[in-house]
Amino acid sequence: MDIYASDEEKGEEIKRWWRENGLSVMLGIAFGIAALVGGRYWLTQQAMNVTNASSLYQQANVYLAEGKTSEAASSVDQLFSDFSATPYATFAALDMAKQSVANKDINGAKSYLEWVINHAKLAGQKDIARLRLSQLQLSEASYDDALATANQSDTAAFKSLFDELKGDIYLAQGKMTEAASAYRTAKTTLEESESRGLILKLKLDDIAGS
């Protein structure tokens, strides 16, 4: 089950933007606040924190690319302990969750996703983690947990994805009426340009046929 197929594009777009602009944004915020409070020491520390967090994140990515999962985990643990407030810690957690799924370490993946839900600053990042966690719970047939996680979503951008996921959960439970209702809601809130409309139509047709 590819739990990253539906939300990968949204997540990668956020990460790509941050890789290109994150350092300058964080430094800009640091300089702006420092200008208000006049704290040169604070400014220096924040700039160093951003630089160090960025270096650890890049280091973790290199380790993951080389298949050195343990070394990557150590870098991410340091990010969690020293730089948890930076977006780099969140991105690293999402990367580690994905790698954990590839390594069939479902409990490890769930742990990283739960970290994002509890620590990420952006609602969109939290919902990416909730979506993936709920999909993992569904794959384990933990239907009540999967539905509870999906119901925690609070961003409009992911509403259709979560409604479709709820449909999948209900379908797995044999609750055809609830599944059809969730799929219809997902299709209604779907942007016209998205190709998922066809997938939702096929799912609805399958329910009608059964």
**Which oligomerization state do the chains in this entry correspond to?**
single chain
Distance between the termini: 23 Å
Question: Which architecture of the largest domain does the CATH hierarchy give at level 2?
Answer: Alpha Horseshoe
- Low-confidence residue ranges: none
| Helix content estimate | over 70%
H/E order of the elements? Answer: HHHHHHHHHH
Q: Give the name of the CATH superfamily of the largest domain.
A: Tetratricopeptide repeat domain
Strand content: under 5%
CATH class of the largest domain: Mainly Alpha
Count of separate structural domains:
2
Helix and strand arrangement:
Blueprint: H1 8-37, H2 40-65, H3 69-82, H4 87-102, H5 106-119, H6 123-139, H7 143-150, H8 159-172, H9 176-188, H10 196-209
Helix pairs in contact: 1-2, 2-3, 2-4, 3-4, 4-5, 5-6, 6-7, 6-8, 7-8, 8-9, 9-10
Q: Describe it for me?
A:
This protein has 210 residues and is an all-alpha fold. The chain has two domains: 138 residues, Serine Threonine Protein Phosphatase 5, Tetratricopeptide repeat (Alpha Horseshoe); 56 residues, no CATH class. It is built from ten helices and no strands. Helix 4 runs antiparallel to helix 5 and helix 6 runs antiparallel to helix 7. The longest helix has 30 residues.
